[in-house]
Amino acid sequence: MVVGQEVIRFLFLRVASGALVIVFASALTFFFINLAPGGPASVMRFDVTAEQREALIKKMGLDKPVTQRYVEWATGAVRGDLGTSLLTDEPVTQRIGERLPNTLTLAGAAFLLSISLGIPIGLIQALRRGSPLDHVLSFFSAIGLAVPVFWLGIVLILIFSVSLRVLPSAGVTGIATDTFFDRLQHLVLPAVVLASTVLPTIVRFMRSAAIEVLHEDYIRTAASKGLAPRVVVSRHVLRNALIPVVSALGALVPRLLGGAVVTEAVFSWPGLGRLALEAAQGRDYPLITSLTVVAAAVAVGTTLLVDLAYTRIDPRVRVA
Amino acid sequence: MKLSLSSFLVRTTSVMIVAALAVSACTSTTTPPGASTAPSAAAAGPVSGGTVTIPIGADPTLNPWSPNAFVESLFINRAIFDGLTKPGKDLAPAPDLAESWTVAPDGLSWTFKLRSGVKWSDGKPFTSDDVAFTFNDIVLKPDLGAQNRASYAAVKSVTVVDPTTVRFDLSRKFAALASFLAYNAGIMPKHVLSANPLTTTTFNKGIPVSTGPFKVEKYTSGQSVSLVPNENYFGAKPFLDKVVFTVVADPNTQVAQALSGDLQIMILDNKAAVDRMKSAAGLVVVARPLVQYYWLSLNQTDSRFTDVRVRQAFVQAIDRQAIIKSVELGYGSIANSPITPALAAYYDPSLASKYPYDPAKATELLKAAGWTPGANGVLQKDGKPFQFTMDVGQRGVLEPVNALIQQDLKKVGVIVDLNTMEWNSYIQKDVVRREYTATVNWWTYPSDPDVFPYYHSSAAGKGFNIPGYQDPKLDDLLVQGQSAGDLEARKAVYKQLQQYTSEVLPYLFLWYPQEIDVLSSSLKGVPELGLRDAMHYIGEWWLAKK
Q1: Interface pTM (ipTM) of the complex?
Q2: Which of A247, A316, B220, B469 has the CB geometry, 3.0–4.6 Å to B506, for a possible disulfide?
Q3: What's the half-sphere exposure (Cβ side, CA atoms, 13 Å) at A20?
Q4: pLDDT at B74 over 50
């Protein structure tokens, strides 16, 4: 790939449009969450009098108009100050900073697990199309799509933590045992459960893409040229079938973040998903808006990465 | 109808958990019942050492006066902070930071004698200045909006008499003061919080300075808060080496963790799992009384509900025993007044059987109030059907309870539409704006029969008087209860109050719930109180050696 002016132009345009998406997402979230009924959890509690409510609303500055509050938040955000969490009085950047690594670890592990399993499984199914193995794997894919994440989570906890007692049921580390191996053990169940939200999709994409490629003329040509089947599959089938799969991966990342909300709740995983749930239920306006910005940035970033990956995989796409 | 994610999860999961538990029941290796508890160990007496792990639903706020200190914060705050008093094991106020107290003959000032030689966990001395600071500069400051501030409406100011004596000056008599001071009223360190009493995050979300038997060792957001013994504690050294509160948001995960031995004590929110817990080896299941009651509030701005016969009819049309059986699995008893059986000194058991389930009697009362069946069986008056909406907040058992009430009222010809709402929005509509016709909820209150804030006419509309019921006779009883000097006089007033409220039904009383606590069989020394109250005695807990 040649890195030239064209690439820089392309990147600049993509980054600029991405930034626009993020600004739009933050404004939309801020106004909608403020329009939603209810208010910050400290105000919306049963045992608070009208007098206390008034004092708290004033203290949090919620008596100011929404537009003014958004402008104040956005001006701060540009300078890297995402405001103060209404639920804890801590800086929002600190709250997100504490949780972001945990979600990246979980989502990253689930993502790696999904592609390292999904691509070979899909490929095998395509190569053994119609065989009993294909049917069995398709059956499991269908089940994987149908089973709710929280239920799968609880069932795995009951089997592996309660009955067999081989894996911990919650948290990122044990209380007294914060080692790498301990963290890895804690990661297994949540990563498997989160992977189950995207793995079946990857398998299905890979299977149908590979089947399509197998019918292409160049595959027949390659085979009839006398290339070893192993080479045909790895060099031609896999590479060409990956093109649609990679574009699907871009769309799966947001789904992974969504799945993280539920997975994190079941496994008490201290990540952004649980933080987002708390922020939404407690109407922590600056926090929920900032989390949306982070999620939007991740989505924009992955789309950009997918586009760049395209140029590497697809022989037809060259930016320059 | 709106659906919030978390309550959707809880509801759906509690249905599916039964299936999941069945799966695990087949695979788990449980020791036979009988081998689970070892009564001989109890006779051996307390031993030191060990770690107790307790689940909490979310990150706590380590400051009982912060408006962001929600229910999950109560556990730790009661273990690390001391009040002037604490709930005794009979729930009557007992000495804590105050050794004794006296009330002036006019009842308008209380003098508390403080324990001497008490130190904060950072080694600084605790004095009467800290008490005055907590009240004058936190609770009584209107612009801070401190939690529980409404409980101290009668307190004018707190005066330092000498380093170990403080005086509370009141604007009216307030017999329950010592009980209220035992309820989430921890004394805060002036030398740490004077600049910023409620929002110092290194304190609230870090390592607070406290006086209790345990102090915070480490606060890990989203994961856990660990406590170790406070070497400066004035009382006996606690037996446990460590107490860890783990943040486990999902009640089903809490159940799984208790089954796998990761937790030593917890409140079982998901009562459907009680049988599984009972059959598990190494776990003990106990029922504890609570100072809590469920009610149905009928908005008194709606003229249909101002007729006492209608309210009495509803209470008899609702099969409350069936509700207790189905949603609480029997852990509770019928309520006919706001004073719960947990307040044994005041509770009047004779009222328990006052309104048996009796739809025929209900129909008769409704008829007397002018409601007669129309063509389709629906009651009518002046050509209008008896139909209204009940708002349902998505929390705990409220959804199934409302569905049962809807069915019961339909049987006597009253049509109820249920409007299910996400909790936060529900509070805004029903509590803040009071834009509702009928709704079910509960009250939890300090261990004292002074229920003034929930019933007095001055609290209608904007205070805690949710139905907006106003009645000079009830007001008079509430004030008498606050003014009565000694226990016997208070008992007499509150007996009358129970009698009267059961007659006029300001709220329709539903039931007194019990808490189900699950304990590791090796955990000893926990008093027979609800777990939140038992936290005041955490210094006495101990773990039997296995």
Answers
A1: 0.86
A2: B469
A3: 6
A4: yes
